């Protein structure tokens, strides 16, 4: 039983950290030097604590139908339980596109400078985080459909079969 709670907390922590990392929108400052035709960019990120709390609330809402409430509710209200993960996915998707475009603009402005490689590397890491978020949503969708089709009766630790799902 302890392992089931630990696994659920681990999933909430992973998805919350992932959403907070995607949603962190920096304030960008461009420094232009006309004499040298050189542009540098500076990213200032907001405090991470309130963003992490916001991400935890959305993650708990998204995971509630499959992990935190009895499995009879998703069978009775499948559309309502499916809609619980939409805010998490919507925040991740909208913030990803905003931040992606922001980084592309920064790369375009800094490309004339001498070191755009760090921003390009950060963009690749950011795209990797978004791929992990897509995988997380697809996992929740798969678990939701398995529960609503009564293929899966419990998620995490199933005491009758003594195995993890």
From TrEMBL:
<keyword id="KW-1133">Transmembrane helix</keyword>
<keyword id="KW-0812">Transmembrane</keyword>
<feature type="transmembrane region" description="Helical">
    <location>
        <begin position="48"/>
        <end position="68"/>
    </location>
</feature>
<keyword id="KW-0472">Membrane</keyword>
<feature type="transmembrane region" description="Helical">
    <location>
        <begin position="80"/>
        <end position="97"/>
    </location>
</feature>
<feature type="transmembrane region" description="Helical">
    <location>
        <begin position="117"/>
        <end position="134"/>
    </location>
</feature>
<protein>
    <submittedName>
        <fullName>Uncharacterized protein</fullName>
    </submittedName>
</protein>
């Amino acid at each position: 039983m302890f392992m089931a709670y630990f696994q659920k907390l681990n999933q909430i922590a992973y998805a919350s950290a992932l959403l907070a990392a995607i949603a962190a929108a920096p304030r960008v400052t461009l420094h232009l030097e006309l004499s040298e035709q050189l542009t540098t960019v500076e990213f200032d990120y907001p405090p991470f604590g309130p963003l992490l709390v916001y991400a935890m609330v959305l993650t708990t809402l998204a995971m509630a139908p499959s992990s935190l409430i009895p499995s009879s509710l998703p069978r009775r209200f499948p559309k309502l339980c499916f809609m619980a993960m939409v805010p998490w996915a919507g925040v991740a998707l909208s913030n990803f596109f905003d931040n992606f475009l922001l980084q592309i603009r920064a790369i375009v402005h800094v490309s004339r400078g001498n070191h755009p490689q760090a921003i390009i590397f950060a963009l690749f890491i950011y795209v990797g985080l978004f791929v992990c978020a897509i995988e997380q949503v697809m996992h929740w969708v798969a678990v939701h459909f398995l529960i609503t089709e009564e293929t899966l009766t419990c998620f995490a630790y199933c005491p009758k079969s003594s195995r993890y799902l």
